[in-house]
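Worked example 2:
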Amino acid sequence: MTTITASMVKDLREKTGVGMMDCKQALAESNGDIDAAVDWLRAKGLSKAAKKSDRIAAEGLVGVASDGKRGAVVEVNSETDFVARNDQFQDMVRNIASLAPVAAGDRDQLLVTTYPGKSGTVQDFITESIATVGENMTLRRTDVVEVGEGVVADYVHNKVSDGLGKIGVLVGLESAGDADKLMTFGRQIAMHVAASAPLALTPDELDTETIEKERAIYLEQAQSTGKPQEIIEKMVEGRLRKEYYQQVVLLQQTFVVDGKASVEQALKTFEKELGKPVRISKFVRYALGEGIEKNADDFAAEVAAAAGTN
């Protein structure tokens, strides 16, 4: 009997896009013959998943799981919202989210984690689901928020089921204060993050390239005033602080709960009520499909072409 090596499994996986366990089984059934293993996978309907892997998957769901001290968020994509509304897909996202805290934000680690109730991995289960449903699906990303003392608050917007929706947010609050009060305030912050989409917690955490891009825009506008260069530079820095940072930095944004104070001011007010210091340690916001370039095909034209009317 031919010994199935790791390199053989790797080669077959790269060729077909099928999960490692299925590739190993296919090679075992085919006595190590790669071509025969490909045919075996096709016969089982598993290699269909590879053919769909280049199709854009920008729909799906964001899943959130939290135990109060540690929370994780995942984005699992499908090609259509129809599949995202399917109970089986929702169960899959919920199960993947439940495993995500242990993966600690490592997508690759999460993909090789054993899927609940199965002998294969998360990647294996996704591959099987692709073959069954007939749509491309991907675990796009995952992140985690954890606190030593305090709480991790979560919020899901456009919720379709518990822990599942179109936007998922986690907020870590470090504090020795009352956990229930911290969680209530933390969820208000999480709702704010969902609505306001901050890019960073503080100005220091903003991407340098992003800041320079905004600075260049303000500089071009300021130069049209004809003022001296030193005045122009002060104008640019002032606009960055008063306009841009207030738009994209969480602590400087206007708190959506009251529409008046900044998040930082609201945090200080809450500290006085709680009687303990509170620090926002980290936040994560996932919006479904953000950053994915979607096809803008004319659906009617596509149907007409398929029917041979064009």
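Residues 181 and 274 are 8 Å apart (CA to CA). The chain is about 50% helix and 15% strand.
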